[in-house]
Structure formats: structure tokens, C-alpha cells
Amino acid sequence: MSKKDKLLLRLIGPPAPKDFPWSDLLTVMGHCGFVHRCSGGSHFTFEHHSGFRFTVSRTHPGGILKAYQVRDVLEALTMVGALNGEERNG
């Protein structure tokens, strides 16, 4: 199992992670077919190749995701079918 797959499994839990770093989120989202961009500040837009997009604010100073951010990310991954293995891009 690759590191990216392990990170995804950790993210989808249970239990929901309380210490999931921003850098690992970028890895997981890229693995699942999302690209991200930031036009300044802390708000990042993640866009899936299917056209689905959502925005997440990077937490400061530690870069650890909050519970609502993990929930939003899991919802986005569900919407594009990434949690059932349909949309992963190696």
C-alpha cells in the first residue's frame, strides 16, 4: 500500500483524525484527482477534473485541519467518488 493510500485511509478514519496536517491533505487531494490553487491569503480552491470544486481555508499557525474541515473534505471526496476507489490518480 502506498503512502498516499495510507494517508487517505487515515483521513477517512474512524476515528476522524484530530491531527491531520495540511501538507498531507494536499497529497491526498492530488492523489484523488484534485488540483489546488491559492490566489493569496489562506483560502485554497480544490478543483476536481470532473468540474467539482470547493474551498478550504488553511489553518494557522500549525496547519492542522479542524474537525469541520475534515468533514468538508470527506464530503468532497464522496461527491467525486474517490472514497470508493473510482477516481484515484496514482
What brief labels describe this structure?
90 residues, alpha+beta, Metal Transport, Frataxin, Chain A, 3-stranded antiparallel β-sheet, globular, HicA_mRNA_interferase
Structure description:
This protein is α+β, with helices and mostly antiparallel strands and 90 residues long. The chain has one domain (3-81): 2-Layer Sandwich (Metal Transport, Frataxin, Chain A), CATH 3.30.920. The protein is 37% helix and 18% strand. A three-stranded antiparallel β-sheet has the order 1-2-3, with helices on one face. A hairpin with a 4-residue loop joins strand 2 (43-48) and strand 3 (53-57). It is globular and about 35 Å long. The mean pLDDT is 87. It comes from Candidatus Accumulibacter appositus. This is Type II toxin-antitoxin system HicA family toxin. GO terms for molecular function: mRNA binding.
Low-confidence stretches: none
Structural class, from secondary structure content? alpha+beta
Task: Spell out the CATH superfamily.
Answer: Hypothetical protein
CATH architecture: 2-Layer Sandwich
CATH fold group: Metal Transport, Frataxin, Chain A
> How many β-strand runs?
3
Pattern of helices and strands: HHEEEH
Most strands sheet? 3 strands, antiparallel
Rg: 12 Å
CATH class: Alpha Beta
Number of domains: 1
Strand fraction band? 15-25%
Spatial strand sequence of the major β-sheet: 1-2-3
Number of helices: 3
Average pLDDT works out at: 87
Calculate the terminal CA-CA distance, rounded to whole Å: 12 Å
Shape: globular
- The helicity comes to 25-40%
InterPro entries: HicA_mRNA_interferase
GO molecular function, one term: mRNA binding
Pfam family, one: HicA_toxin
Protein name: Type II toxin-antitoxin system HicA family toxin
